[in-house]
Amino acid sequence: MTHELDTRLNRRVSHVSYVPEHEDDDELLALEEELEAVTVEIWKPNCFIRFVERFPYIIIILMLSSAGGCAALLYFYAPVPNFITGDDPTKGFETRGTEIHKRAWTLKNLNEHNNVDYFLMPNISIVLEELNIPQKVIGFGPFQQNSAQYHSKREERDLSSHNKLVGFGSCPGFILKDSNTYKFVIEPRHGQDLLSLANLKAWCELESEVILPLISPIRGLVSIPQLVLCMSNIVYKWHGCEAFTERSVTAFKEIMHTCAPHYYSKTLSGPAPALCTKNSQIIWQFFMYMAPIGFLQPGSVGVRESLGSALSYVDWSTMRELDPEKVYRKSFLSNRIQNDKIRIVAMNIPSQDDVKYNLFSDYLLDDLKKYFTLALGLILCIMMLYTKSVAMVLATVINVSMSFVFACAIYFFVCRLTFFPFINLLAGLVLIAVGADDIFIFYDTWKQIRTEKSQLSFAQSLSLSYKHATLSIFVTSFTTASAFFTNTISSTITTIRCFGIFAGIAIIVNFFVMVAWTPACIVCMEKLWQGFIGSLRSRSANSMFQKSVQRVEEFFDNRTSKITELACARFLPALVNKLWYVWIIILTSLGVGSCFVIFYKPKLQLPKSQDFQLFPDDNLLENWDLNFIKSFPYQIQHQQNDRIPLYVVFGFEPKDDGNWLDPDDPGSAITEDTNFDFYKNSTQMWLANFCADLKNQSFVDPHFRQQPCALPKYGDLFQQFCSIPRYASFLKQCCTQYKPPYTSHQLKVCLPALQEILGGNINLIGNIIYNSTNTVKGFMMFVYTNLNFSLSYDEMDKNYKTLKGYFADKFVTAPTGLRTGFFTGRYTFTFFDVQGAIARGTNLSILLSIAVAFGIMLITTMNLVITLYAIVAIMFSIICTVASIVLLGWHLNIIESITISLAIGLSIDFTVHYGVAYRLSLANEPHLRVEESFSRVGPAVAMAALTTFSAGAAMMPARVLAYTKLGTFLMLVMTFSWVYATFLFQSICRIIGPKGNCCQLRCAGCKKAPPSHRTLVVNPDDDDDSLITFS
């Protein structure tokens, strides 16, 4: 590249006459001094390069041996990941250390310690000993006897109604036990009404082909086709699917349309037309169990006249195969159960979660083998076409494999982490892409230097390649790893933290493995190749084989060079130089539009489901959980109470003393508040007044406002029992005070006796928590609120702030021992806490990653203007990527949060390469610098984008949703990163890029650097001035 210099080197480097434009004498002197220093330094390779050149096999053997040893340690001593054992793959998808989590876990630990350390009922033996009475006196109070009879009758009634057989005459019925039925969601394929003759026949045929062979007898199947025939007095089993007639179908539809208003008004039994009362059971079963919510409901918005979906039921006990997982794997695994008109779009089976977890475990490993291998294969094929080296392809495979093994060993044995979530496997795909790109950059740099500076010795070329490539690879590796590591700081979710640690370790390890492994492999390949060629030349200088090899090499070299020159040295620079205004307008507008999509409409939203999606939407089991679990009245009727429960706990400090990186170690220690003293008068009076105030709050359910508070009620109970001769004989000392505050004897002896007599069969707002010696250690109140549970973050945030504001005001005025009291909704706010952690963690991760990227870019280029331009391009590429996933319908869940943080690490790479190349260009005009940056790093940037894009594309057929989402994300981020780095960043530099040393930073105490730094390479063995070059 000496043609770009206005330099004339005379006999020696010390006599330099290099006079760049706008350069003064001081800068020329500084340039001469630097050139002399570099002349001495560069031709002497460092010790590591010398060792690599002489003993490459030692490095290779040592690294392979170390990797093998680590693999053996992992195989024998590392804990088995939970997703391999079929355990819950969503384990760890929870917050740790947050206010909500600490309170929920403290309450959970209190419940788990019941009958161990803390008790809601006192120790009866201590009570008897204190009162000196026989045990038979205790436990036969009128309250306990009546309560026992009441609970017995209630349980009997609930059990009988729960297992009641729904059926009538010859019509089918089923047991109303949700866990013991198969449910199939049926839909028409072409959007027609299911209640048509053609569709009912097709529905019947589909059931006959798919479902009936699985059950015995046929009575185990309950579906709408059976109801239609039943109302026509036709037995489904005997007449089959040809029994449907237009008349029977029309009659069924007329009955349902006529009687629907009476079903919704609950007047099927009367007053209603005789047609409805006669068929009331069929009508009720149709609307309650088979038709979706709102079908034919009068007065509802958009009344649905056509039946678009319906449920069919199969009794589990009638299945020929009782194992639900075997049934699913054998008959429904394809997810395409359909005929010409009807299809099964979703299903629910007994033990569905267990079946999903087992399937996920199988798919996770199977897809890992298939599609990660496919991704690696595509990358290696691209590399081989570009590098024309099979040996480098094999070296890349080994490099990535060793990096993953070393990363796992550090994760388990150095960091001493035992939890390895399945999301950590996603780091493997990123490692494949990043590792291949790093080796490609190093090898490409090596080939360029060997071609352009053929006068250098082997060691000099290797040293120069090492210095050039390693710096670039370190910058990109550090930014990517930093983006991962920020998750450990920004997030409170266990899985995200573990992923950040493992992925960051993997990228850093890959860098160190690459800088040792790749040079050693290159030396070995060169020596083996030179030895092979030398032996051929010694035998026959004109051998046909040698000529063939040379022709093949020249052919590929020429083709590759021409393509590279055409694309990167001519086509791309021409697009930027001639159409820079077009790119700036289009890409800026696209970025602004993406901001509109993210922040306004449709807007990036938090997850709306508490269940983490494991499979794509077309999976029958997943589709049920996502779209149909609340689509039918029967399902809604059996949902849990939507009101938020409220627990208020005193006497304990909320803490999470477990390992926050291990969901299996939630912690067990309960920290008592040493200032809590229930026996103090001030404590009792404040708790009594607080309970009265709490009941009157607008957010408390009206039913609980009628319940008495515990402390005042204790006095009434004392007075009541003191008037009963049976108890008055041993409760004499308890009959002294009937209002709080109570005496010490009443609290320590009488109250435990009273609670034992009642047996907990009275509803009071407030429960005393005892230890094993009947000492009061805490107090807990429970009420239901009228605040509804919601999956909406905004709604739950409003509810939480309402409760938090009230309790914060009340606890400020509490006595010292009660100020550590806390409220919790137990698990009600858990999902809300996860949503908040994802939102806060993602935002903080983006800010931290951008800050790291800015710092690294500034240090690398030492130019503020270029750094600002780069950050603009990076931010726009990230915004466009996020907007794309919003338009794809993604919500900001665990996977999306990880990928967004990863986007920064991957987005900066291309801009860094272009920015550094622009800065190092000797040209003075911005458009010439842009052209030179394209010619220098354009091919490497394009290949890096292509390989990572290919890795993402290879994951698209995967059955695990996390794999497909990561693949989609990689394709998006590579596309936008390359486009914005190539066209926006370069276009901005083209028109307002810095010239010369404009906005160039210089470190204090450093030598004054020349305006355009170049590396001087001198061959000391030759006095020819032509061998003194710049790079």
From TrEMBL:
GO terms for biological process: smoothened signaling pathway. It is a multi-pass membrane protein. The lineage of its organism: Eukaryota, Metazoa, Spiralia, Lophotrochozoa, Annelida. It is found in: Membrane. Residues 392-524 form the SSD domain. Keywords: Glycoprotein, Membrane, Transmembrane, Transmembrane helix. GO terms for molecular function: transmembrane transporter activity. This is SSD domain-containing protein. It comes from Paralvinella palmiformis. The keyword rRNA-binding does not apply. Its main location: membrane. Signal peptide: none annotated. GO terms for cellular component: membrane. It comes from the Eukaryota. Belongs to the dispatched family. The chain crosses the membrane at residues 55-77, 393-414, 426-446, 466-486, 498-517, 580-600, 844-862, 868-890, 897-917, 937-956, 968-988.
